[in-house]
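Thread amino acids onto this structure.
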């Protein structure tokens, strides 16, 4: 397998070098300096807006790709020594806009908004995004890995900037003021790349600044204009920010019989952000507290392997792709949630393993080189058999060709205490090499990687490798993916839920475009998934046939039929309190699924996802979906459900798994938000209440009150509860 991995990597690299594809021509936008300051009112009355260069020729991305929009969109750019200015004017049919809520970091679909993207290193791989809607609600975020996948887009990144809007007759306008200290860029650069996309709910059009092909995403960084600086970019954007916090709370764990009363706590700590250069940022944290982070959404777990839950902690967000994009989503050598969250060695439940101190150095040295270094120290916990671990992660990435790159990562976890854990290794290390492919027009993209782990007393079959290649042209999308994970490959600080397999995964899809019809896009897809163990014995096989339709009114429908085979390699307890399915038994089953999502522009929207078929030794009837009512712009109320009925024969009993999650989201203003959601989950016999009040009293400065309560649904007995308050403030020095 090692020889095969090396051969695959060589072939893939040779293919990448040989590909010479033409790219779409990119015209330029020019930006020049102004001596004037701005009156931030959203009205674009300053003379430098009209005196400067603008982008006015947007295109329809949806529904009629490449056509002229129903209403114009205009962008203007200028700058001073300290700020980048962006002026926006969006024309419309009337002033009745769709804005679901006043909460920051909104999702774009189904509402009116515009987002501007800046590729500050001109590499086609990474970008900052800044967005605003007609109520003046902001969002900022990042795009990584070229923006080719939905997962490459994130609004988790936070930073300081300002913007205001103005509503006129059949238009709305906005002014953005972005400090250069917020951005990372090369000082002597003469060119950035810029893109933008707008959602116009009144016409149901999605517009892009460049004529993005509809077989590519609107956030794909292959399709951007050049932004040429007529005057030099300011050189002094270095900054130091202090973000101290204080939190206090009261908790009560009634399931811990040793606790006879509630526990109170107070915690003080903070973060420091230092702009080492205009491209490199140093983040420091001391005694961090993540109590304000929204709790994970529960899911019905019918999988044999660990479920992925995303990182939500702000400290780990900026440049996160530099570390977590190695491998793929199921063979990831570094997963930041492993730091500070551990597994109780006696109950196998997730527990907190507090972080004492940490540092992250991330960013770009120049246009071609990108580096990252993390070092974190966690607290010793002898009661739960957890040593004090030190985590070190180093990553380096070199740009190649137009938008491709090669990267190297090293992940290390060491036991830093004077006692040996009975269940945890004294050290664990992984080294990995990745090649990421993205051609200029993104017709070809993919990656090849090879990783090796190091653990005590283990040096055989401890590597993983993979090759992914995707081709898109016109209506055709082709994909090839294969992976190998050795039986002893052990990435303890990564996310690798399954080992000892070889996977082959080709797929083909067609996407037909229909102009001026009830159906705008439609097409079939066929995917094949085969898993073999190291003896090349088939353990899993999935043949998936689907047909997708996108409608003129913004609704979507997907029909999916799957033929599935599973050979259990270990005992699997599918149904609680019932006999496990035994290792060595195999199952053939068939499922048909329907997924429909209604028009999200309407005040009332919903999705419905029924499934019928078989599941291992059971007949399966399942229904999931959500219903949502929006009382804009102040929020929404909704309910999410997932019901699975598994009909079995003796000695098993029919099982009903029910997960119901009502949610109330209220935004009193652009600064005060309240989210309350409930989760009833009979699979884990738990009823959860989580309420989170946030007051953003200053830019990136917050006061939180978070209440959490859990009950055993058998008798509705309280398990635990907590009430936490946290205050943080962002100081710029």
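Threaded sequence (733 positions):
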């Amino acid at each position: 397998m090692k020889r095969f991995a090396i051969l695959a990597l060589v072939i893939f690299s040779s293919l990448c070098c040989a590909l010479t594809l033409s790219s779409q021509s990119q015209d330029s936008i020019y930006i020049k300096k102004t001596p004037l300051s701005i009156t931030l009112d959203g009205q674009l009355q300053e003379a430098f807006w009209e005196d400067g260069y603008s982008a006015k020729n947007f295109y329809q991305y949806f529904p009629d790709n490449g056509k002229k929009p129903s209403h114009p969109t205009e962008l203007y750019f200028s700058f001073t020594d300290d700020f980048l200015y962006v002026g926006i004017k969006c024309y419309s049919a009337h002033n009745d806009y769709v804005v679901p809520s006043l909460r920051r970091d909104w999702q774009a679909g189904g509402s009116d908004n515009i987002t501007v993207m800046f590729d500050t290193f001109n590499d086609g791989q990474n970008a900052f995004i800044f967005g605003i809607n007609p109520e003046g609600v902001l969002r900022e975020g990042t795009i990584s890995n070229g923006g080719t996948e939905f997962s490459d887009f994130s609004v988790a990144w936070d930073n300081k900037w300002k913007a205001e809007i103005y509503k006129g007759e059949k238009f709305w306008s906005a002014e953005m003021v972005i400090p250069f200290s917020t951005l990372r860029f090369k000082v002597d650069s003469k060119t950035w790349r810029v893109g933008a996309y707008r959602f116009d709910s009144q016409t149901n059009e999605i517009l892009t600044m460049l004529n993005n092909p509809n077989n590519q995403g609107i956030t794909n960084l292959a399709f951007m204009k050049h932004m040429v600086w007529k005057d030099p970019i300011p050189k002094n954007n270095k900054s130091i920010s202090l973000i101290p916090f204080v939190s206090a709370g009261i908790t009560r764990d009634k399931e811990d019989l040793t606790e006879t009363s509630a526990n109170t706590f107070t915690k003080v700590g903070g973060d420091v952000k230092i702009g080492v250069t205009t491209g490199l940022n140093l983040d420091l944290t001391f005694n961090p507290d993540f109590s304000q982070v929204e709790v994970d959404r529960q899911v019905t777990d019918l999988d044999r392997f660990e479920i992925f839950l995303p990182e939500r902690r702000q400290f780990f967000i900026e440049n996160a792709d530099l570390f977590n994009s190695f491998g793929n989503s199921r063979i990831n050598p570094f997963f930041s949630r492993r730091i500070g969250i551990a597994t109780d060695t006696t109950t196998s439940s997730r527990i907190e393993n507090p972080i004492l101190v940490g540092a992250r150095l991330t960013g770009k040295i120049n246009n071609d080189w990108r580096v990252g270094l993390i070092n974190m120290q966690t607290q010793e916990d002898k009661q739960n058999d957890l040593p004090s671990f030190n985590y070190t992660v180093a990553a380096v990435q070199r740009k190649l060709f137009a938008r491709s790159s090669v990267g190297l990562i090293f992940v290390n976890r060491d036991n830093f205490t004077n006692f040996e854990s009975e269940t945890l290794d004294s050290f664990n290390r992984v080294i990995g090499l990745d090649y990421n492919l993205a051609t200029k027009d993104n017709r070809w993209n993919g990656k090849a990687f090879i990783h090796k782990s190091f653990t005590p007393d283990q040096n055989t079959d401890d590597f993983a490798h993979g090759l992914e290649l995707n081709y898109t042209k016109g209506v055709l999308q082709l994909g090839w993916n294969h992976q190998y994970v050795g039986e002893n490959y052990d990435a303890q600080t990564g996310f690798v839920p399954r080992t000892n397999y070889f996977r082959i995964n080709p797929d083909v899809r067609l996407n037909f475009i229909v102009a001026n019809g009830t159906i705008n896009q439609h097409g079939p897809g066929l995917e094949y998934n085969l898993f073999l163990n190291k003896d090349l014995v088939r353990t899993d096989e999935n043949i998936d046939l689907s047909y997708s339709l996108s409608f003129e009114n913004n609704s979507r429908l997907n029909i999916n039929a799957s033929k599935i085979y599973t050979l259990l390699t270990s005992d699997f307890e599918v149904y609680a309190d019932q006999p496990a399915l035994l290792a060595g038994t195999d199952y053939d089953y068939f499922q048909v699924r329907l997924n429909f999502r209604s028009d999200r522009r309407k005040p009332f929207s919903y999705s419905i996802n029924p499934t019928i078929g078989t599941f291992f030794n059971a007949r399966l009837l399942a229904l999931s979906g959500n219903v949502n009512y929006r009382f804009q712009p102040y929020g929404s109320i909704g309910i999410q459900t997932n019901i699975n009925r598994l009909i079995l024969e003796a000695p098993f009993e029919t099982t009903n798994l029910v997960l119901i999650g009502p949610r109330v989201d209220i935004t009193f203003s652009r600064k005060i938000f309240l989210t309350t959601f409930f989760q009833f989950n009979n699979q884990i016999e738990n009823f959860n209440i989580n309420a989170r009040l946030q007051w953003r009293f200053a830019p990136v400065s917050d006061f939180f009150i978070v209440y959490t309560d859990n009950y055993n649904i058998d008798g509705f007995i309280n398990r635990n509860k907590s009430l936490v308050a946290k205050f943080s403030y962002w100081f710029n020095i």
